[in-house]
Amino acid sequence: MDLFWHLYQQGRIRHAEDTASEARHNVREQELAVTELERQVERLTIVVIALAEILRDRHGTPIEVIEAKMREVEQRGATLRPKAKRCDECGRVSSPGHKNCIFCGKPLPKEPFLPDPKQQHPGAEQVSAANPAGTAFQGEKPADRPGG
Known about the structure:
- The protein is an all-alpha fold.
- The chain has two helices and two strands; from the N terminus they run H-H-E-E.
- It has two domains: 1-78; 81-112, no CATH class.
- A hairpin with a 6-residue loop joins strand 1 and strand 2 (93-94).
């Protein structure tokens, strides 16, 4: 009976060692994924800074206007996470990431990279060339402004 118990325990130990080895491998893969994401975030940060400097230096956009727009976009809850899409053909909803409807196979509508300025968040004001600060002149609504 001791022999069977010993063999059983050895099997459990081997299984635990295999599980631990697999977990170490998974941790290493996740560490590499995090390192890659950190690299991408750093690169995107550099791109954003470069674009803000171009707007400021070449187009004369005040940094305050750029920062205000960044806050506005953040407050809108802008995200690039994929959302479920409704098929225009059959009306059913497909999971994020699919390019074609999983039910009928028709192409799903694509989301634009930038939101349509005509469908701005309620209360958001557009920045125009005539009024780069994006503020309404006294007694006017944002829609009454030039370029608004």
